[in-house]
Amino acid sequence: MRTITIQTNSTDRIAGYGRPALPFFLVVAALLSACTRKDPVGLPYSSASQAPLPSNDRDATKQASLRQAHAGAISTALAGAAAAGKNLRNHGGRVMGDAQVYLLWYGNWAAEPASFLIPALVQGLDSAPWWRINHLYGDGAGDVAGEHVRFAGEHSVVPRVGETLDTDLTDDDVKSIVARAIAEHDLPLSPNGIYVVLGAPEIHQDGFCTSHCGWHTHATLEGQDIKYAFVGNAATQCPRACGVEAVSPNGTGAGDAMANVLAHELAETVTDSDIDAWYDDNGSENADLCAWTFGSTQSMPSTARWNVCIGDRRWRIQQNWALGDGERCALWPIAEVAPSDACCGGGGDGSLCLTKSYDGQVAVCDGDELPHMLGVALTDSAGRAMTAPTAVTFHVPSNEGCLMSGASCVVDVDTTTDALGHAGVRYKTPTIPKGETMEFHVEARVPGAGKPAVVFTVVVNGC
User: Fold this and answer.
1) Which residues pair with 321 in a beta bridge?
2) Whole-number Cα distances in Å, 322 to 41, 75, 219
3) At 227, is the secondary structure helix, strand, or coil?
4) How many CA atoms are closer than 13 Å to the CA of 336, on its beta-carbon side?
5) Fewer beta carbons within 10 angstroms: which end of the chain, N or C?
């Protein structure tokens, strides 16, 4: 979805901290009101009909147009999208060829399984047929949208001494959260970065649940054109409004719903990063034309429905607009054959599949213990979660240890599990001086399964 650029104020404060929380009221009537804000993933359901509302944009004109098309039936919306798609074109802007995704965890994520799930989605995008639809979009400089995308790092946003974490965020607050993480070197400054603020269940953001489920935009930070986004957790605020399902492909309704919205936003960011490239006459971007439509889905043993393989997991992700002959909403490029529905190495024969579900770069202060920093999902090749995640073991290779400033160091590792069939590891590091970096590897394997180990590379920055 397209979004109006947030301007950088000369007197920006570090928003998102220190302000008293304001009460949040979910006004049902607002679900039908025209949106006057920037470009978010819109609501899949209207309170009037409880039918999917295919809108992922905050632009008022676009919202009004899509609501007119919404006659209570997805078929009507799809017909409108197909017509609009014929006018989808590049208006002269650049696309992002190399996308580096940074995740900013804002709020209380300690007990949230989405903290395992979202990194797994991002890590799998680069090789996913669904993502290759973005490769059909280019610009005058010869760049291919999303030609390379990778999970580049993450940061848990925590208040400093004397601060409180604000639970009611404005758009400028989101921008300031990103700006602070960059300014304080919690995350690097990268013109190829997409900085995604992920709101925990208790975090309210202007328009979230009433006019959008997420959005993307850009702003000038530290002299660079920086792309960033917001995706909220609708678990308690508006589960139906943002597509939270009781039974979902990865066993966490809120996490699967966030993954669905995030995939949509990332696809639009690489094709319309500065809000001046790919969109149609109504202001709709590529993924907007297919918002809240999922194409052909299949059922899992849990009864959850899924439609794409990304990484080694099954997901229910909105379609994207595939350019080319017969252009339309699709789950993979039109010119390609349908991908295999075996997400993990085979045809459902029950063999074990051990895959990364959480891996990244963090900042550590004074040897803090970081729970669930690494994680794996143990499933069979049909995508069914195994019932004994404790079968996974973790260890730091004995011949390696870790390195900090060229010297060896010690990392204490112990295993933990969660209720969703994930196994994880907690580790405690030595104190890392600000500006220094420590790197180590952790192996995870299933004893006796004959499977190769999954190896995590962990980079920890002192702060």
Assistant:
1) 329
2) 19, 18, 28
3) strand
4) 17
5) C
Report the predicted TM-score, pTM, of the whole model to 2 decimal places: 0.69
The amino acid that residue 210 corresponds to is: T
Please determine, for residue 354, whether its predicted confidence score (pLDDT) is greater than 50.
yes
In angstroms, the CA 344 to CA 351 distance is: 9
- Evaluate if residue 198 carries a pLDDT over 70: yes
| 447 compared with 331, residue with greater pLDDT | 331
User: Quick one: tokens of 106?
Assistant: 């804002």
Distance CA 43, CA 232 (A): 12
Tokens (6 digits) for 214:
């997420």
Q: What is the pLDDT of residues 111-167, one digit of tens each?
A: 777 887 898 899 889 989 999 999 999 999 999 999 999 999 899 998 888 889 999
d(C-alpha 165, C-alpha 203), whole Å: 10
Which residue, 345, 392, 290, is CA-closest to 74?
A: 290
Residue type, 157: V
Rounded distance, CA 383 to CA 306, Å? 11
Instruction: Please name which of 451, 431, 435 lies closest in space to residue 443, comparing C-alpha atoms.
Output: 451
pLDDT beyond 80 at 35: no
Task: Record the tokens describing residue 138, joined without a space.
Answer: 């280019």
Tell me how far apart the alpha carbons of residues 386 and 12 are, in angstroms, rounded to a whole number: 49
Whole-angstrom distance, CA of residue 427 vs CA of residue 413: 5
CATH (one of 2.60.40.790, 3.40.350.10, 2.60.40.10, 3.60.15.10) for 352-462: 2.60.40.10
pLDDT at 314: 85
Indicate the domain borders of the chain: 42-330, 352-462
**What radius of gyration, in Å, describes the C-alpha atoms of the chain?**
21
Question: 201: burial class by Cβ within 10 Å (0-12, 13-18, 19+)?
Answer: middle
CA distance 144 to 135: 6
pLDDT per position as a tens digit, 291-335: 999 999 988 778 889 999 888 788 999 999 999 888 999 999 988
Looking at residue 265, what is its pLDDT?
A: 98
Distance between first and last Cα of the chain:
35
Amino acid code (one letter) for 266: L
Helical axes 74-85 vs 60-69, angle rounded to 10°: 130
Contact 360, 151 (CB under 8 A): yes
Distance CA 111, CA 377 (A): 16
| Per-residue pLDDT reduced to its tens digit, 52-69 | 333 344 333 333 333 333
